[in-house]
Specification:
This protein has 2 helices and 20 strands. It has 273 residues and is of the alpha+beta class. Strands 7, 8, 11, 15 and 18 form a 5-stranded antiparallel beta sheet that branches. Strands 12-13-14 form a 3-stranded antiparallel beta sheet, with no helix packed on it.
Length: 273
């Protein structure tokens, strides 16, 4: 009976973590370029249950032989293994702001390949994002809304000097200060990218991201004055949140049922009269 506690408790913890992931998706439904997290579940390893007993052999020496009989397997519950970003392009909307850029995917040679803007985080490391909600800081550099520098194809900071600049479909930045190519990175397996917060991704795979313009078969378009929306579906997310809540309640009722059974076994069946 105690195993039932563990199984139901594991189910409650898994659904609680799933609710947290869904809530994070819902809170970023309006974040440009946000990629929804898909939660994966796994079952704990099954255990083989055996009945251990012994029987006596009526001999002069009183032999006692052990005997084990397999009863069957038992599952000990599930757990939420990880959250995997859904790398799917969101809808593109027009904003009319010159600092807003949207990455529009074209033909990609691999099904799991994806495109990113290249930026620099506060530690000076290369990171990647799909959030093109850029701005120009006081020094004239193109940055993200969180202050991370946007990089060009050579991983140098882009200085436009003003918000009055033009960006071609190929990603060429034309400004009174300088002309350069905005960094567009391609990676054949986007699942190697891990979220770091502030809508940034880090490449934790063994394969480095490459310049999308130099990769054969990769086509894209940079649209100025537009933003890629989050790929979170609020309707589907709300439905999943309700389903997860119901599953949590079911496991909660199982725990209450076991608790009532234990109460009867301990306080009524075993009562001395």
């Amino acid at each position: 009976m105690l195993r039932g506690y563990y199984t139901a408790g594991a189910g409650m913890i898994a659904q609680q973590r799933y609710q947290e992931a869904l809530s994070n998706n819902m809170s970023n439904a309006l974040t440009p370029g946000y990629k929804a997290d898909r939660s994966t579940f796994r079952a704990f390893p099954e255990m083989l249950i055996s009945r251990m007993e012994s029987y006596d052999i009526p001999t002069s020496q009183g032999l006692n032989l052990a005997r084990n009989q397999n009863v069957g397997s038992i599952n000990t519950g599930v757990y939420m293994q990880e959250g995997v970003p859904l790398f799917q392009q969101g809808d593109v909307r027009e904003t009319g702001l010159s600092t807003d850029l949207a990455m529009i995917n074209g033909d990609l040679p691999e099904e799991t390949g994806f495109l990113f803007f290249t930026v620099q985080n506060e530690d000076g490391d290369i990171r990647y994002t799909r959030n093109g909600n850029f701005t120009v800081d006081a020094e004239g550099y193109l940055t993200t809304s969180d202050g991370h520098y946007v990089l060009d194809e050579n991983n140098n900071r882009i200085q436009t000097g003003t918000e009055e600049f033009q960006v071609t479909e190929n990603g060429e930045v034309i400004s009174p200060f300088d002309n350069t190519m905005i960094g567009v990175a391609y990676h054949p397996n986007a699942n190697d990218f891990v979220k770091e917060g502030a809508n940034l991704f880090a490449n934790e795979g063994d394969v480095a991201a490459v310049d999308a313009r130099a990769e054969a078969g990769v086509n894209f378009q940079v649209a100025q004055g537009r933003l890629e929306r989050s790929n979170v579906s609020p309707e589907a997310t709300m439905t999943e949140m309700m389903r997860s809540y119901r599953l949590f309640e079911i496991n909660q009722q199982v725990v209450k049922t076991y608790d009532q059974s234990m109460d009867i076994a301990a306080n009524q069946i075993g009562r001395l009269r």
